[in-house]
Amino acid sequence: MTPFDTETCRRYALQHFPDICRARPADSHKGTFGTAAVLGGSKGMSGAALLAGEAAMYGGCGKVLVGLEHYPPPAHRARLELMIDDAAAVAAADADVWIVGCGLAQTDSAAALLQHVCQRARVLVLDAGALHLLPKHPLPAPSADTVRVLTPHPGEAAKLLKSTPDAIVQNRVWAARELATRHQAWVVLKGHESVIASASGFLRINRNGNAGLATAGSGDVLAGLLGSLLAQGIAVEQAVAAAVWLHGAAAEWLAARQTGPIGLLAGELPVAVRWLRNRLVTVAGNN
Ligand SMILES: NC(=O)C1=CN([C@@H]2O[C@H](COP(=O)(O)OP(=O)(O)OC[C@H]3O[C@@H](n4cnc5c(N)ncnc54)[C@H](OP(=O)(O)O)[C@@H]3O)[C@@H](O)[C@H]2O)[C@@H](O)CC1
Ligand SMILES: Nc1ncnc2c1ncn2[C@@H]1O[C@H](COP(=O)(O)OP(=O)(O)O)[C@@H](O)[C@H]1O
């Protein structure tokens, strides 16, 4: 069994992303921790959007909306806390952060949804299907007061850069930086040792996590967690790297409890993230 050292994690988090280690103010309410909206879940892929929504809730967001392109979904085990509706209705709602693409198909209606949300969103996380739409349906560049984050895996990065997954894996730092510059965005190039880059030159290679994350839906969980931290007001300079690190640490924590790496389920990650976030919390005078 791989050991998991909570105190080492806490020290690392305090050094690199202190804002995720802060205790909640006693007088806080759900509005304090923001609203995230997930848009995705086309036919056969509602699970992806629901996983992102669950991850956003367990990551500490105050309120989470999930808009499904294929609505109503077939019978599904979804958290009752999620506010689930059809994608068009959710796209018209208010949210601090939009997470678009988890389980989103390549249809004209999905492209229209993406364009619509892009005009309204101040903070936009683009994953999976949204990334596949970009080559044919480019978005206007983000304005100075907006934040955009792209979370491609090597297959999605290859499509965006007109390359191949193998070539991307061989040139991961270049690919992440190139995407960040071209899209004026923060980029997480996912995979073993994910690369994080920004248009302004931030670069970090995330070293934690394990092969348990190589399972369907774990990228959807990452997108939801990232949107969650951003909705909670954590600055993008900390939120992106913190989400990738928390996701990896959650997989390590599960593996240490023999819930993986083999057979780890993406849906098991959010509870582990919650456990971890609460152990990272420091109170004044105790750090
Ligand atoms: N429960 C649900 O509803 C779920 C729904 N989901 C939703 O399904 C949709 C399709 O997503 P998807 O990832 O399955 O297919 P797609 O985007 O075509 O990419 C495949 C290509 O990328 C490559 N590739 C990937 N990683 C790589 C790496 N590290 N290193 C190298 N290559 C890598 C891969 O390579 P290969 O496997 O050929 O080696 C292949 O070329 C999406 O919307 C998602 O949200 C899923 O999240 C699952 C749970
Ligand atoms: N071998 C690995 N080591 C560490 N992290 C991994 C590994 N394989 C996958 N991951 C992580 O798991 C997630 C997979 O995301 P993605 O490929 O988008 O899957 P899905 O579309 O099924 O959700 C990414 O965050 C990636 O970095």
The number of distinct helices, counting runs of at least 4 residues, comes to 11
Indicate the radius of gyration in whole angstroms. Answer: 18 Å
How many beta-strand runs? Answer: 9
CATH superfamily placement = Ribokinase
Number of folding domains? 1
What strand order characterises the main sheet? 3-2-1-4-5-6-7-8-9
Overall residue-averaged pLDDT value: 96
Give the CA-based shape. Answer: globular
Structural class: alpha/beta
Query: What is the helix fraction of residues, given as a range?
Result: 40-55%
Oligomer: single chain
Low-confidence runs (pLDDT<50, min 5 residues)? Answer: none
Strand content: 5-15%
Largest sheet: 9 strands, mixed
GO biological process, one term: metabolite repair
EC number: 4.2.1.136
Catalytic activity: (6S)-NADHX + ADP = AMP + phosphate + NADH + H(+); (6S)-NADPHX + ADP = AMP + phosphate + NADPH + H(+)
Subunit structure: Homotetramer.
